[in-house]
Design a protein that fits this description.
Blueprint (H helix, E strand, L loop, with lengths): L10 E4 L7 H4 L5 E6 L3 H4 L2 H8 L4 E5 L8 H14 L3 E6 L1 H14 L6 H5 L11 E5 L11 E6 L4 E6 L7 E4 L9 H19 L7 H23 L4 H14 L13 H13 L3 H15 L1 H16 L5 H18 L16 H12 L12 H11 L1
Parallel strand pairs: 1-8, 2-3, 2-4, 4-5, 5-8
Antiparallel strand pairs: 6-7
Helix pairs in contact: 4-5, 7-8, 7-9, 7-11, 8-9, 10-11, 11-12, 11-13, 11-15, 12-13, 14-15
The structure holds 5,6-dihydroxy-NADP and zinc ion.
The site of zinc ion has 5 residues, from helix 7.
Keywords: Oxidoreductase
InterPro entries: ADH_Fe/GldA (IPR001670), ADH_Fe_C (IPR056798), ADH_Fe_CS (IPR018211), BDH-like (IPR044731)
Protein name: NADH-dependent alcohol dehydrogenase
Length: 385
């Protein structure tokens, strides 16, 4: 196991009725920017719960943060904060609103052009505005991590950044919020979280037995509850286990002491930037093909995944290959279409585009062994057509 530091200061407040605790969690006398997305919170009662809990606080609302949040929109919120002299941000939404708020929090006090935060993929370690979140869509883990992804509309670039100053001060996770989610979004959430675990787990054997067992526990739980929660989102046992699994998949715990991959996400982000395919759906397109192309590097861990998650038996090569098939079957069970051509019509030049972009960015060796070269990226994307 590699040396590591574990730092996670987010106060996670989990369970039914916890939104009412906002009045204790938001700092007294705070002037709050209440940030949200396209308006789902008005239809499902979450807005009303938040406003009730924040009675007495000075609040300025900022709505309209898009799925795959846009730099251009977020900069408008930065202006509002400066004009109204606000000092705390509350994100109410899914990963997009929370990621958007992380950018706003970093940009408000940024010395220079905030676009640099994205282009230089900066790590913000100080001077971020404090913020909390009310999670409305379990998926990304953004509620308990310090990373975020923001899209620049003008250049169609989807870029990640982060840093220790960008952990939420608190996050409220009330599993009853998922009752209003469209099925498609629950499917996305399960697959996003599943793939987060894969990116940290499907590498090579690294003598991190506990990390492996925790990762496998999350995968098992997502397989158990995922298909059921789509049809029964008001079942509290299913909803709470789904929500907690998503947080645990990307709150930093299972990546400690191990080398991780993330190439599926890096390629997937390009598919969203190019074709606006939902984040999770891009992962379902890329992941199985990445595991096929990188088979030689990953087969031992793929075989462990096949044995422990799907109960497969046999020699390493066979079990590893079958494990990729089982993974793809699970993606299909969760409503994913795993070919790029099933998700967009104009895919023919995608591999060239992505390889060129990665080349320009100097991303010539991705993955846990930096052996996912530009040629491998091309192969993975072409295999995904
Ligand atoms: O905008 P509103 O009206 O709120 O509607 C949203 C949006 O249309 C809707 N929704 C959310 N909660 C709802 C609801 N509808 C009904 N009832 C509710 N309770 O769902 C739609 C999608 O929301 P979005 O926030 O975009 O989804 P998700 O949480 O999947 O976030 C995706 C974004 O997070 C990034 C992705 O790249 C993408 O931009 N990621 C962030 C990560 C991180 N910070 O660690 C890691 C991930 O890998 C990912 O990259
Ligand atoms: Zn993801």
């Amino acid at each position: 196991m590699q040396n590591f530091e574990l730092y996670n200061p987010t106060n996670l407040v989990f369970g039914k009725g916890q939104i009412a605790k906002l009045k204790e969690l938001v700092p007294q006398n705070a002037k709050v920017l209440l940030a949200y997305g396209g308006g789902s919170i008005f239809k499902n009662g979450i807005y009303d719960q938040v406003i009730k809990a924040l009675t007495g606080f000075e609040i300025v609302e900022f709505g309209g943060i898009e799925p795959n949040p846009r730099y251009e929109t977020l900069m408008k919120a930065v202006t509002v904060i400066k004009e109204k002299k606000l000092d705390f941000i509350l994100a109410v939404g899914g990963g997009s609103v929370i990621d958007g708020v992380k950018f706003i929090a970093a940009a408000v006090h940024f010395d220079g052009n905030p676009m640099e935060i994205l282009h230089k993929r900066m790590q913000i370690k100080a001077n971020a505005m404090p913020f909390g979140t009310v999670l409305t869509l379990p998926a990304t883990g953004s509620e308990m991590n310090s990373g975020a992804v923001v899209t620049i509309n003008e250049t169609q670039e989807k870029l990640s950044f982060g840093g220790s100053a960008l952990f939420p001060k608190f996050s409220i996770c009330d599993p009853t919020v998922i009752a209003s989610l469209p099925k498609k979004q629950i499917q996305n959430g399960v697959i996003d979280a599943f793939t987060h675990v894969l990116e940290q787990y499907l590498t090579f054997k690294q003598d991190a037995y506990l990390q492996d067992r925790i990762a496998e526990g999350i995968l098992h739980t997502l397989i158990e509850v995922g298909p059921k929660v789509v049809d029964n989102p008001t079942d509290y046992a299913l909803a709470s286990n789904y929500m907690w699994s998503c947080t645990m998949a990307l709150n930093g715990l299972i990546q400690k002491g191990v080398s991780t991959d993330w190439a599926t996400h890096m390629i997937g982000h390009e598919l969203t930037a190019l074709y606006e395919i939902d984040h999770a759906r891009t992962l379902a397109i890329i992941a199985p093909n990445l595991y096929k192309v990188m088979f030689a590097t990953k087969k031992e861990k793929l075989a462990q995944f096949g044995e422990r998650i799907f109960g497969l038996q046999g020699d390493t090569e066979t079990v590893a290959k079958q494990a990729i098939e089982k993974m793809t079957d699970f993606f299909h069970t969760m409503g994913m279409q795993t070919k790029l051509s099933e998700n967009t019509a104009n895919y023919q030049d995608t591999a060239n585009f992505i390889v060129k972009r990665f080349d320009e960015r100097g991303w010539k060796g991705l993955g846990e062994k930096q052996n996912i070269t530009l040629e491998k990226v091309r192969e993975i994307v072409e295999l995904s057509y």
